[in-house]
Amino acid sequence: MDPGRRVSTGEPRVRRTARILVLDEGGSVLLMKTHWGQRTLPARWLTPGGGIDPGEDERAAAVRELFEETGLTLTDAAALGDPVAFRRIALPPAEEYQVREATYFLLRTPRFELSDADWTDSEKDDIVGVRWFALDELEAPGEDFDPEGVRSVLTEALRAGRSQEGLR
Predict the structure, then answer these.
(1) Is residue 5 part of a domain?
(2) Domain span including residue 117
(3) pLDDT tens across 38-60, in order?
(4) Looking at the domain assignment, is residue 6 inside a domain?
(5) Ramachandran region of residue 16, left (φ > 0), alpha (ψ -120 to 50) or beta?
(6) What is the pTM of this model?
(7) What is the pLDDT of residues 112-157, one digit of tens each?
């Protein structure tokens, strides 16, 4: 059984995830446009990150996902610091899981060119766009953002005033 999934009578199937708010020196945030699993809804923009593997904690999963999805390597997992936000959201009915729990970390780094060299076949199919968004662009109409509310998560994280180092 998938350890990210808790199945019991009356309990929803839960996918635990670690997500990273990657901010460049100008305050723009890196987002990825991905399909929903069942592709029943339009693709939406979300932060890099993904499922927590067996034996991983949230920070280790965030470091791994950051590398796999962007090519960026952290020299020290502690560089992410403490989580800056947590969200538990209901997912659309057609999705494999009913609930997603997302733990967010904040990373400030100079803007970099993303590498897709370590994307899985599934990610190559699922990710349909990557771009840096200025904060005011997150308010623009016409784009679908992840249901956790990237805007509110980012606002919450910035209020926490965290900054990290430790990039290679």
Answers:
(1) no
(2) 14-160
(3) 666 778 888 999 999 999 999 99
(4) no
(5) beta
(6) 0.82
(7) 999 999 998 888 888 999 999 998 888 777 777 776 678 888 877 7
In a domain, 70, yes or no: yes
> Residue 53 is encoded by which pair of tokens?
């593997």
* DSSP structural state of residue 165: -
* Domain presence at residue 75: yes
Higher pLDDT, 34 or 167: 34
Beta bridge partners of 33: 45, 129
- The count of domains in the chain is 1
Secondary structure in 3-state letters for the chain = CCCCCCCECCECCEEEEEEEEEECCCCCEEEEEECCCCCCCCCEEECCEEECCCCCCHHHHHHHHHHHHHCCCECCHHHHCCCCEEEEEECCCCCCCCEEEEEEEEEECCCCCCCCCCCCHHHHHHEEEEEEECHHHHHCCCCCECCCCHHHHHHHHHHHCCCCCCEC
